[in-house]
Amino acid sequence: MQELIVNIAPNLASKLPDFYKALGDTMLMVLWSGLISFVFGLLLGVVLTVTKPNGILENKVVYQILDKLVSLFRSIPFIILLTWVMPITRALVGTVLYVRGAIVPLVFGSVPFFTRQVESALAELDGGLIEAALSMGSRAASATSPSATAMTATWPTSRTSPCSSLCSSSASSNLSADASSKRTRTNVIPIQPLPTPLQKIILTEDISMKLKKFFALALAAATLALALTACGSKADDSADNSDANTDNQTGETVTVKLGVVGGIYDDLWASAKAALADEGIDLEIVQFSDYVTPNNALANGDIDLNAFQHRIYLQNEIDNYGYAIQNIGNTFIIPLNLYSQKVSSVDELKDGDVVAIPDDLTNGGRALKVLEAAGLIELDPSAAFNPTVDDITSYKVNITIEELKANTIPSVLPDVAAAVVNGNYALDFGLKTDEAIYKDSVLDVEEYWNLIAARTADIEDPDTAAIYEKVVEAFQSSATEDVFNNTFGGYFIAVGWDQDLINQ
C-alpha cells in the first residue's frame, strides 16, 4: 500500500505520518458531529412534524420559530457559519482550533439538513394507515364530540374506498336504525365513493381552464417583456451613441481591473484612482478573500493587474504554476508583527505555548524570520528568505508553531498564546502596531517588498504598457504617501519607488 502511495503521490508519501494524523482527526470530526447531529436532527424533525398545522400536537408558535431557524441555518454558507459560531464554540469547548473547535460548527451546519430529512420522511407516512387505525377503534370518540365532527370533515375525499357505494348506503341505513336504540356509539368515519366519470371530466376541464389562463398570462407577460426590452434597447442605443460621441470628443475611457486582498486597499488606492480618472483611466478595485486566487485570476485574464503580494510570493507562484506575470512597480512593505491577547511581551512566552503563523510558504517563511528575530527560534542559514518549520534548528522556547490561513489568524488570537499577523489583516481586524509584542524589523529586504503585477504579454504591448505605467506612477505619489502616514499612522512604508520596472 505504501509503495503504491509513493508511486502515485510521492509528495504525500513524504508526509505519511501527518496524513494519517489528519485522516484520523477528520474521522473524529465526522463521527462526533454526525452522532450529535443525528440526535438533535431527529428530535427537531419530530417536533416540527407534530407541531405543524393539522399535526397531532399543533402549535403554531413553536412550529414557526423552529421552521424559520432551520431554514435560516440551512441558507448560511458554512464558511460564514463557522465565523458566526466562534463565540459559541469557545464557550462550549474552549477553543476554535483543532478537532474540538471544528465539531461545533459542523453540528450547526449539519443539524438543519438532517432535521429536514427527518421531517420529510415523517411526512411521507401513508395517511391511510392512520385512517385505518382510527376506523378500527383507535382514539375512539363520541358521536357528539367535536373530534368526531372534525374527523368526518377531514376525511380525504380522493382516497380509494374499500367498499362500494352500495356498502356505504347500507352502512348509513344501519346507523340510522341503530341511532334510536343507542344514545351514544363509537364514531364511524363515512367512506366516500370514488369520483364518477362525470366528476373526472369536470375536474379535468377545471384544470384545463386553469392551464389555459396560466399560459395566456405567461404569453402576455412575455409580450410585455419583449416590448420593454425593445424600448430599453432603443434607449440604450441612444445612450451608447451619446456616450460614443462624448468619447470621440473627449477621449475614450479605459477600465483597468486591479485585484487586491483586504478592505484597506480601497483607501490605499483612493488617491491614485482619482488621479487616473482625470487621465481617462477607470481603476476598478476587485476584492479577493485569499492570497491564492488573485494571481490565478490575473493569469486567466479576469483582472488586469493585482497588488497584494511581495516578491518572494510572486516568484513562488510563478515557479509552482508557471504564470507568465511579472512585477511592474514596487508599492510598500508592511511590517509582519507578533500579537498576543494573553502576554504583554515575548519574554512571557513559555514552553508549550502555541504560536500561529501563516501557512503559505512565503508569508510563513517571513513569519519564521520574525520569530527568529524575536529570539524564539533559530533557523538554518541556508534556508535564505523562504524557510519552513523544517528549517528550525533549535527552539530557545519550546513553543508549538501552528500554521493557519493568514486571513483567519486575527480571529483565533484568543485561542493561541501569540500569532504573527499579516499587516493588511491586522488593519482589517483593528490591530494596532503599538499593540504588538514584537515589531517586524526585517524591512530593508527587497524580497519582502510588495508590488504591482501584470501579465507579461500585456507589458509587451506598448499601448497597454503605457496605461499600466500611468497606474504605477499614480500610486507612487506624494498623495499615496500621505495616506500611508495620515490614515494608517505610518504602518505602510514606501519602498523602491525609484525603480522603473516597466521600461528596464
Descriptive tags:
11% strand; MetI-like fold; 20 helices; 504 residues; four-stranded mixed β-sheet; D-Maltodextrin-Binding Protein, domain 2; five-stranded mixed β-sheet
Description:
There is one protein chain. The chain is α/β, with parallel strands linked by helices and 504 residues long. It has four domains: 2-123, Orthogonal Bundle (MetI-like fold); 128-179, no CATH class; 254-334 and 448-494, 3-Layer(aba) Sandwich (D-Maltodextrin-Binding Protein, domain 2), CATH 3.40.190.10; 337-442, D-Maltodextrin-Binding Protein, domain 2. Helix content is 54%, strand content 11%. The protein contains 20 helices and 13 strands. The protein has helices at residues 2-8, 10-13, 16-51, 60-75, 78-84, 86-93, 98-123, 127-135, 146-154, 165-179, 197-250, 264-268, 270-278, 293-300, 311-321, 361-373, 423-428, 456-459, 462-475, 478-487, and strands at residues 254-261, 281-288, 305-306, 325-330, 332-333, 337-339, 354-358, 377-379, 392-395, 400-404, 418-421, 451-455, 493-494. The chain has a five-stranded mixed β-sheet, with helices on both faces. α6 packs across α7 (98-123). The longest helix is centred in the middle third of the chain and has 54 residues, at 197-250. The radius of gyration is 35 Å and the shape is globular.
